[in-house]
């Protein structure tokens, strides 16, 4: 199939994004034909592949989905949808079996039982893992192999989606550009069912664990099309990104603390026992703020694995060990320098229990969506679970709407060029407006917030949007998402989970609910700032 008059027809479901949520949905749609659009080759640029901990699931002896749901609600600081937590936890075992059937080499003991890790705020060992800290990579490699063997799935690499296409009150597909065509007229890709699975917004922050391309594009384009957004203010900062100065920052998985690693400052002082009864295994927002306050007070923070793991870190957590050695750190004999980093967005495009958004014709899954599962603070390793559950639910919903068809021919004239792709990514990274936006978000809409800083942030975002040279739809998606986060943070006059206001440091009962807003509302808050 070739491009004609800048219009392509997906001839079935269209999935934007090739992380866990998108590929899971595509596989579950088989044998119904589906087109998956990815700006990079499969396995590159998706946050799912970078996940270290694993998938949370009540599959161990004595564990129950209800206990998993209770832990999820406690971590979510009072605004988790209880029914949602129960239903997702109940589906976890089935989704783990899907992943295993597709070839994921989960760690097992001699009897074939899953080896389970314990992570922060879980009441028991519940995280199904691969080689200690390689779950995301291993899951994605297994799924990519399965996808490439599935004739009903058409993969389009080298096409970047910049806008949703809307007509007669519904989403009819997307507008996209071929790699490198920054100012060319976008291509319209038509579809009866469009699934947005294009990731979160961690890259809007100067210090993040997310891949470079994950900068709020999905939520931004959905909001600009009129979609309802939920809980945009809730950004989770991982407490233990490795402080190397790299962008993005490599991650030291929470499972290290589950194995007994401790946090200390440069004086060797352990500070978490005085902060929370669970010390290093307190919820992520509490640990992140404790680390942030140590750094703000002039200290350096280290994750010390020497006593808990010693040389075992090299084989039990090979990914972390490699990150360390790449930057001249010997984790066997040295503590690992760490810092909080933007890691996961609990908010996003609001969806119902089937993954349907407020816009007919549009579904959303993965980190760009807001299901009500995470509340104000995501429980560790619930993100990959949610992506799999909603990938399956959306596939089931669309399968009832889409008839079976013959396999789809490829789109001709669109292909990935590695050198050009790296050049495009580097150009975006170095744009002054992008660097300034990331600085504003880290400095003013970060781990701790206040009204004065948030108003300055909103005014700065508006100025960047109005004056940045060469503003594209991609940059507009970024400033849209940044506006929603800052506006939600300014409106929520309390502290809860990942959202902490120094001028309102306690939770308030009247705010024990989800935030829902349109872009229009966020822009009104921005204009009043």
How would you describe this protein?
The protein contains 15 helices and 20 strands. It is α/β, with parallel strands linked by helices. It has two domains: 1-234 and 346-413, FAD/NAD(P)-binding domain; 235-343, Flavocytochrome C3, Chain A, domain 1 (Alpha-Beta Complex), CATH 3.90.700. The strands form five sheets. Strands 7-3-2-11-18 form a five-stranded parallel sheet, covered by helices on one side. It has a four-stranded mixed sheet with strand order 1-10-9-8. Strands 19-17-12-20 form a four-stranded mixed sheet. A hairpin with an 8-residue loop joins strand 9 (170-178) and strand 10. The termini are far apart. The relative contact order is 0.17.
Give the class from helix and strand content and strand pairing: alpha/beta
Silhouette: globular
- Gross CATH architecture of the largest domain: 3-Layer(bba) Sandwich
How does the major sheet shape up?
Answer: 5 strands, parallel
Rg, nearest Å:
22 Å
Give the end-to-end Cα distance, rounded to a whole number of Å: 49 Å
Instruction: Please indicate the count of domains.
Output: 2
In DSSP terms, counting alpha (H) and pi (I) runs of 4 or more, how many helices?
Answer: 15
What is the CATH homology-level superfamily of the largest domain?
FAD/NAD(P)-binding domain
The residue ranges in which pLDDT falls below 50 over 5 or more consecutive positions are none
Level-1 CATH class name of the largest domain = Alpha Beta
What is the CATH topology descriptor of the largest domain? FAD/NAD(P)-binding domain
């Amino acid at each position: 199939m070739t491009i004609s008059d800048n219009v392509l027809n997906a001839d079935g479901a269209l999935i934007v994004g090739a992380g866990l949520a998108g590929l899971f949905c595509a596989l579950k749609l088989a044998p119904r034909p589906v087109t998956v659009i990815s700006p990079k080759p499969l396995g590159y640029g998706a946050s799912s592949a970078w996940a270290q901990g694993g998938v949370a699931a009540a599959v161990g002896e004595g564990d129950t989905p209800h206990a998993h749901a209770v832990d999820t609600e406690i971590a979510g600081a009072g605004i988790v949808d209880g029914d949602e937590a129960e239903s997702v936890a109940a589906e976890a075992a089935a989704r783990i079996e899907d992943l295993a059937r597709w070839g994921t080499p989960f760690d097992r003991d001699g009897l074939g039982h899953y080896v389970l890790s314990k992570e922060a705020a879980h009441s028991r060992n519940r995280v199904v893992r691969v080689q200690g800290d390689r779950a995301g990579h291993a899951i994605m490699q297994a799924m990519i192999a399965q996808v490439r063997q599935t004739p009903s799935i058409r993969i389009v690499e080298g096409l970047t989606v910049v806008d949703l296409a809307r007509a007669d009150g519904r989403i009819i597909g997307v507008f996209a550009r071929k790699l490198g065509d920054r100012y060319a007229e976008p291509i319209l890709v038509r579809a009866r069912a469009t699934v947005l699975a294009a990731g979160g917004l961690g890259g809007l922050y100067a210090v993040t664990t997310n891949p470079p391309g994950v900068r709020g594009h999905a939520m931004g384009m959905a909001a600009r099309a009129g979609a309802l957004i939920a809980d945009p203010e809730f950004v989770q900062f991982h407490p233990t990104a490795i402080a190397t100065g790299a962008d993005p920052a490599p991650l030291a998985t929470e499972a290290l603390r589950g194995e007994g690693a401790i946090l200390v400052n440069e004086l060797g002082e352990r500070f978490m026992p005085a902060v929370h009864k669970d010390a290093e295994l307190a919820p992520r927002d509490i640990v992140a703020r404790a680390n942030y306050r140590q750094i703000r007070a002039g200290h350096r923070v280290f994750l010390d694995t020497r006593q808990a793991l010693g040389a075992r870190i090299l084989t039990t957590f090979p990914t972390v060990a490699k990150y360390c050695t790449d930057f001249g750190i010997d984790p066997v004999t040295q503590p690992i320098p760490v810092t909080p980093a933007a890691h996961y967005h609990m908010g996003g495009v609001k969806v119902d229990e089937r993954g349907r958004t407020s816009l007919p014709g549009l579904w959303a899954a993965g980190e760009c969506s807001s299901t009500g599962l995470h509340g104000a603070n995501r429980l560790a390793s619930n993100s990959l679970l949610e992506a799999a559950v909603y990938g399956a639910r959306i596939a089931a919903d669309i399968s009832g709407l889409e008839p079976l068809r013959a396999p789809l021919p490829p789109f001709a004239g669109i292909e990935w060029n590695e050198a050009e792709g790296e050049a495009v990514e580097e150009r975006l990274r170095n744009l002054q407006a992008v660097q300034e936006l990331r600085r504003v978000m880290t400095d003013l809409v970060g781990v701790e917030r206040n009204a004065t800083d948030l108003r300055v942030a909103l005014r700065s975002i508006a100025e960047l949007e109005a004056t940045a040279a060469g503003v594209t739809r991609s940059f507009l998606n970024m400033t849209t998402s940044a506006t929603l986060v800052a506006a939600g943070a300014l409106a929520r006059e309390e502290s809860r989970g990942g959202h902490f206001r120094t001028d309102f440091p306690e939770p308030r009962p009247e705010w024990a609910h989800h935030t829902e807003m349109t872009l229009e509302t966020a822009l009104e808050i921005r204009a009043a700032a």
